[in-house]
């Protein structure tokens, strides 16, 4: 009995993964093998699908937000945010750890990237924590865990990709991310405080001075206004997410270059280079995944998966828990955007069959992928934080275990209480 075209495509994809080919090459290679094996579609579907995958306007927001985040890091905007947050909570147990989490939350509303948030905030605060008597493991764990909020608090690069693939409103996804994002930030902050209490890491002994704090807020007001300008332009209807990403770049140039006078031509060049690198990687993967998804649809993979899932259970919550389990395992070996790009086209029909709200599922998908940023062997945030703190990956991986537990608790909350996630989008008439 000859194997089906679908099985050949899937087996080819995993075989190419195991050979060490990049994600986009594995997807494109498996698609081409399937086309030749099946022979039911013309080869012209290759270039047509690749063009369709690249010709998606909302994708422009991703490199623009990356460029804006890099400009703000070099333009002293991140430092000003950290200084204000530190004066607010720096005196509590684990004050610098809590400052790291909150600064990551604030910076997440600028960059949209998990590793980028770790790099921007961790570079400033991890050495400061070590100098103040915190263990390098605690410092790296706090930075890497706080950085996961970067893909949940809007704007979020994974949310943009998910919305494009699911034919959803990017603004609706951003709106749904606020309540879960601040919930995760609160859980991370509580975890950092508990771990600091257990390990005896006290906060800053300097007494709070209201005059100094107000002066610091005044000096940093352009930096602190950044997320409100970016997100305000979206929710006021003045700009689309893509236009808001360009506004973010212009604001970063204004504040970093003219107000703070910290930006140099080399910084602008590095920011553009970072944006180009991210843009190239995303476009390659999205283009190849469009071809891959078209073949899977033609071979009725979504329908077969739906039948398989429904044979196990028709309870939406049980199905969500099954998907979460799969995502946690895949996240150990696959990069976040790759996971979303491969799974979403196949899972969407399953969600529709079970009546699971696509926006609600998108939030669960993104939060579950936050765990992937902290789980070896791939955990990208672990590598960034370990290099900053000069501590081994193994020690950082052990240090983030309490934060992983907090993330898992948040995922279960969002899964079992959908209204907790959806009340804000519904209030603003953005739920689908």
Description:
With 432 residues, this protein is mainly alpha-helical. The protein has one domain. It contains 23 helices and no strands. The longest helix has 34 residues, at 265-298. The radius of gyration is 22 Å and the shape is globular.
Features of the shown structure:
432 residues, mainly alpha, 23 helices, single chain, globular
Distance between the termini: 44 Å
**What summary fits the major beta sheet?**
none
Number of strands: 0
Could you state the order of secondary-structure elements as H and E? HHHHHHHHHHHHHHHHHHHHHHH
Structural class by sheet pairing and helices: mainly alpha
Strand proportion: under 5%
Give a short summary of the structure.
This protein has 432 residues and is mostly helical. The chain is 78% helix and 0% strand.
SSE diagram, text form:
Elements: H1 5-18, H2 23-38, H3 44-54, H4 61-74, H5 77-89, H6 95-111, H7 114-131, H8 136-147, H9 157-165, H10 170-199, H11 210-219, H12 221-224, H13 226-235, H14 241-259, H15 265-298, H16 301-312, H17 316-331, H18 336-354, H19 358-372, H20 380-389, H21 393-399, H22 401-416, H23 418-427
Helix pairs in contact: 1-2, 2-15, 3-15, 4-7, 4-14, 4-15, 5-6, 5-11, 6-7, 6-8, 6-10, 6-13, 7-8, 7-20, 8-10, 8-20, 8-21, 9-18, 10-19, 10-22, 10-23, 13-14, 15-18, 16-18, 17-18, 17-19, 18-19, 19-22, 22-23
